Amino acid sequence: MVTAVTTIARLCTLVSISELTAWVPISVSIVHLKPCDYPVIENGKISERMAHSYFPMRIGQYVDYHCRNGYLAPNGGRVVRIYCSKGGWNPEPKCLSKCTSTISISVRLRKKGCPNLWLGAEQVQRGSHTPPWMPKCLFSDVTCEPPPEIAGGKVQGVKKPRYLPGETAHYQCWQGFQMTGASTVTCQNGTWTERPQCKGNCRLSETAMARNNIKLRWSSKRSNIYRSKETISFKCYFLFREVSNPEDFEAQCQDGVINYPRCESQLEK
């Protein structure tokens, strides 16, 4: 928070009033803004040539700082210039530890300095600690196993041994199956978001309709393929009556299965 202290200086000026000369006091406002104190930087310090500069500094002035060996500034450099602003030093001076050597354990990596914590190889190769520069140390229970298979479909591409929080996987259905739900799942706190389902399409059987003495109520559909949850309307042959419940004549494709209603001849009884 920037604070301002206003100092009123009373000055005198010579003015002419009705042929009389007099000294008249006037007021001048002088504003002092909060300056920037000497920056104390963990694992770093300001440049030697600026170490003896006058502090606190005014807005607009700057200093350079550098990080110790094994540490980097957030922008990836070792020497950074920061400026005094209304909100303090900008950017905030920090020194973050670099990625050190990694030990390959199974198909995962453990970073020195992060006991019992895991991180992904891709982040290690970027060589930093805070996104997008540095890899995080992650507890093993927040990473995800490979996404599970689903009936009627598969995971696209090659599965990874472990997935970091926020990473995604994509599903696709086999031919003849219709997907319900989102095709993309995300690793969150060691588990995957809800998987989609691949529901089998239904193929209308002329044989089954003839066996049950029924036909389509509407003949406008050119294909005999129906998607999951799609409704199929039936009716009885001429001179046949319904044996099944009336609602059964509005059948639905249920994961590749159609429950056909039945009719019987009115002449049989």
UniProtKB/TrEMBL annotation:
PROSITE patterns: SUSHI. One of its GO terms (molecular function) is complement component C3b binding. Keywords: Disulfide bond, Signal, Sushi. It comes from Anas zonorhyncha (Eastern spot-billed duck). Residues 34-97, 142-200 form the Sushi domain. This is Sushi domain-containing protein. Residues 1-23 form the signal peptide. InterPro entries: ComplSys_Reg/VirEntry_Med, Sushi/SCR/CCP_sf, Sushi_SCR_CCP_dom. GO terms for biological process: complement activation. CDD domains: CCP. One of its GO terms (cellular component) is extracellular space. Disulfide bonds join 144-187.
